Amino acid sequence: MDKTAALASDILQGIGGEKNILRLENCMTRVRVEVEDEAKLDIPRLKKLPGVSGYVKQGEQHQLIVGPGKAAQVVEAMRSLMGGAVIDDAERTKNQAKARYKAPMSDALRQLANVFIPLIPAFIASGLITGIINILKRPDITGDFATQFPNLLGILAIFGSAVFAIMNILVGVNTAKVFGGSLAMGGVMAGILSSPQLAQISLFGEPLQPGRGGVIAVLLVVVLMCWIEKKLRAALPGSLELILNPLLTTLITGSIAIIALQPLGGWISDAIAHGAAWAIDRGGFLVGGVLAGTFLPLVLTGLHQGLVPIHVELVQAHGFNALLPILSMAGVGQVGAAIAVLLKTRNARLKKVIKGALPVGLLGIGEPLIFGVTLPLGKPFIGACLGGAVGGALISFWKVATVITFGISGLPLALTIVTGKVMLYLLGYLVAVIAGFLFTWLLGFNDPEE
Fold it and tell me: Helix, strand or coil for residue 70?
C-alpha cells in the first residue's frame, strides 16, 4: 500500500469509518469531511497522522490539511477504499442538515466560494500565460521577439484571455450547480445578461448594457432562477413540468433580471470595483497593512471567501487586481515566522513539519504552515500577521498589481505582476519574510515537548 492509500485508510479509521461520512470532498490543500456522529471522531489521532499537517473545523465540516495536489489524491483513495460509494448523496445530506444549525454568514460564504473554486485552474493558467506574454514583449529581456513572432503572441493572448471571455457563463453554470438549479439554465441566464443584442434595446429611455454587473449580476440572477425553478417544479404537474418549467423560468427570471437585477448588480459591481480601488489608492501604508495583517484571521473563520467576487470584479473593471498582491503578503509573513520557529525549536517532529511545509509556503500555499506550525504555537501566528502587515503596507504604497484574479500567491505571483512592478513585489516579499521572522523571534513561543 502506497503512502496515499495508507493515509486514506488511516483517515477513514479516524473519522469512524465510511458509514459515519455524510459528505466527502476536497479543495486544493484540504480533505473536507462532514460526519453523522461526532463522537466517533478521533481528532487527536487524526492530527498525529503522518501526512496531516493541520486540522481545522468550520461549521459542521472537519478539514485535514494534507497539502496541494495531495488532497485530491487522498479523497480519491478514500472513495476507492469505500468501494466507490456515493457518500455525498444530496438527499441524505439535506435531511441531516435540517436538524443542524449553521451560521448563515459562514454557510453563504462557503456557497459563494464553491461557485469560484472550480475556476481556479483556469485563472491560474490565464494569469501565468498573461505574465509570460508581458515578459516576451519586453525588448530589454527578449530583444525583438515580439516583432519577429507576432502570431505566436496573438495565440498566447487568446489562450490567456479565454477564461474572461466566458467568465459569466462559467459562473452561471457553477452557481446553478451550487444552488440546486439546472446547469444549462444557469448558463442561459448568464448568456442573456451578456448578449450583445442588449445594446440594441432601450428600457426606460436608456440603452441596455451587455455584461453590466459582471459576475455579481450573474450570481443574483441565477440564485433567483434556482429558486423559481424549484417552486415551479413543485407546483406544476409532472406531465407538463419538463416543458413549462424551463419556459416559465426563463421568461420570469429573464424579465426580472433585465428590469431590476442587472442594474442592481451593476451598481454593486461599480461600488466594489471603485471602492476597493479608491481605498487601496488613497489608503497607502495603512490600508495595505490592515488588509494583509487581518487576512489570516479571516482565513481561519472562512470569511475570506467573501473576497472572491471582489478579486474578479477588480480584474473585470480595471484589467488588474491590486488587492491580491497585498493579501498574499499574509502568507509570506508565515514563511518568515516558520523559519524563526525552525531555528529556535528543539522539537524534532515540529522541525520535520516545518521543513515539509516551507517549500509549498514559498509557493503561496500557507495552510500547512498556519495549521501545522504558527497557529498551534500561538505567538508565531501573531508574528506572521505582523510580518504580513509590513509587507502589505509596502505593496499597497508601491501600488503593485497583478493581472490575475485569484488562485496563486507567493513567489509564482511575481510572474503575473504588471510590468514595472515585479521587483517591487519581490522586495515586498523579502521584507515580509524578514519582518515575520523578527517579530516571531522577539515574541518567542513555548517550545512543545516531543
Answer: helix
Region of 213 on the Ramachandran plot (φ > 0 left; ψ -120 to 50 alpha; else beta) = left
Query: What local confidence, expressed as pLDDT, does residue 100 receive?
Result: 42
Query: pLDDT tens, 93-135?
Result: 334 433 343 444 556 677 777 888 788 788 888 878 888 887 8
Neighbours of 121 (CB within 10 A): 12
CA distance between the termini of the chain: 28
Query: Per-residue pLDDT for 86 more than 50?
Result: no
Spell out the residues 6+ positions from residue 188 whose beta carbon is closer than 8 angstroms to its own. 172, 250
Contact present, 124 and 407 (Cβ < 8 Å):
yes
| 27 catalytic per annotation | yes
Give dist(CA 448, CA 349) in Å, integer: 10
**Furthest-apart CA pair in the chain: how many Å?**
74
Annotated catalytic residue, options 15, 27, 403, 414? 27
Amino acid residing at 165: A
- CA dist 316 and 336 (Å) reads 33
